Amino acid sequence: MVTCWSTAMMMTAAMSASVPESRQERRAQERRRGERRERIELGPPLIVFSDIWKSFGAQVIYEGLDLVVHKGETLTIVGGSGTGKSVLLKCLLGLLRPDRGSIEAFGEEVSLRSEREMRSIRSRIGMLFQGAALFDSLDVADNIAYPLRQHGWRDESRVAARVSEVLEMVNLPGIERRWPAELSGGMKKRVGLARAIAIEPEVLLYDEPTTGLDPTNTRRIDQLIIDLQQRLGVTSIVVTHDMASAFRVSDRLAMLAEHRIVWCGFKDEVEEAPDPRVRAFIEGTIGE
Ligand SMILES: Nc1ncnc2c1ncn2[C@@H]1O[C@H](COP(=O)(O)OP(=O)(O)OP(=O)(O)O)[C@@H](O)[C@H]1O
Ligand SMILES: [Mg+2]
Q1: d(CA 41, ligand 1 centre) in Å
Q2: Which pLDDT tens digit goes with each residue over 28-82?
Q3: 195, 150 Cβ separation under 8 angstroms
Q4: Residue 80 CA neighbour count, 13 Å, CB half
């Protein structure tokens, strides 16, 4: 992770070196690069974390974390390594439980649900795990087909067609019969993403979607995240260390530090964040 973080810092330092002086100039440059999207009007709350507390033994992760994700938005969570970004996504999926507090998704309380009851919520949420988390004993096609079959897809020709379709979407056509061990880290990540989007979930959780990808595939994945939002109205939570990517795909940014969300706002509000550490972190001029 240290390597990953320093890479991100080098990238963000490079970014900040090329950041133009004024806000207008920067926005004009973003518009020219096709990166500037107008602010969306926020929809109703879809996922609500309220007063979340969580520790692992003596290690405190959250102390009263609050965060609201609105329907149809792409919200990116940023923060230092080990601050609990991945744990937050796992709590939403019910893979980990907070010690205290409430997590609501689609108007239902997640943290009180049994494993069996979580299945219906999980069928509406796709997740790209940080390490892709492919099943080594299944080939690419069966990895991607896994959630489809779990959610009742019985027609194998339809399953195969959907597998090919999502592999094309992540720029890996024709690799159905390859095994995870034969793939590079970046390819695994893209297969993990293909698996996450296969069931056409209403909510997508992306944990470091572009880490380890080359610039072309980073752009492609960023564009895919934007397209899924714009074409299908998907609500997304992205976790990333890649600030350039965060600014491209997000409507809003939230910063996790000191065991809670210390700032959350539209990306063009970063410059007005009251805490200079938040501005410096998100604009990529300091590490933690
Ligand atoms: N299941 C677990 N049991 C014990 N500790 C855990 C568990 N999961 C995560 N942790 C610890 O909780 C802390 C937060 O982990 P998390 O993976 O959420 O960090 P992160 O913000 O995603 O970091 P990174 O940016 O490096 O991915 C870490 O110190 C981690 O070791
Ligand atoms: Mg993580």
Answers
A1: 33
A2: 655 555 555 678 889 999 999 999 999 999 999 999 999 999 999 999 999 999 9
A3: no
A4: 14
Q: Dihedral sign, CA of 21, 22, 23, 26? A: negative
Q: Which ligand is nearest to the CA of 82?
A: 1
Check residue 31 and give its pLDDT: 53
**Could you give the CA distance from residue 108 to residue 204 in angstroms, rounded to a whole number?**
17
At 24, the pLDDT band (50, 70, 90 cuts) reads low
Q: Cα of 84 to ligand 1 centre, how many Å?
A: 5
Three-class DSSP category at 261? strand
Closest Cα to atom 31 of ligand 1? 82
CA of 129 to the centre of ligand 2 (A): 9
C-alpha 56/C-alpha 59 separation (Å) is: 5
- Sign of the four-CA dihedral 13, 14, 17, 20: negative
Distance CA 127, CA 204 (A): 6
pTM here is 0.84
Which of the 8 DSSP states describes residue 268? G
Q: What is the largest CA-CA distance in the chain?
A: 57
The whole-number average pLDDT for the span 177-202 is 92
Dist CA 146 CA 156 (whole Å): 12
Is residue 72 within 8 Å of 237, Cβ to Cβ?
no
- Spatial distance between the Cα atoms of 282 and 252, rounded to a whole number of angstroms: 12
In the chain, the amino acid numbered 87 is: V
Look at residue 282 and tell me whether its pLDDT is greater than 90: no
Q: For ligand 1, what atom is nearest to the CA of residue 83?
A: 21
CA of 80 to the centre of ligand 2 (A): 9
The ligand that comes nearest to the alpha carbon of residue 256 is 1
Pocket of ligand 1 (CB under 6 A): 1, 56, 61, 79, 81-87, 130
Hey, what are 247's tokens? Answer: 């600014």
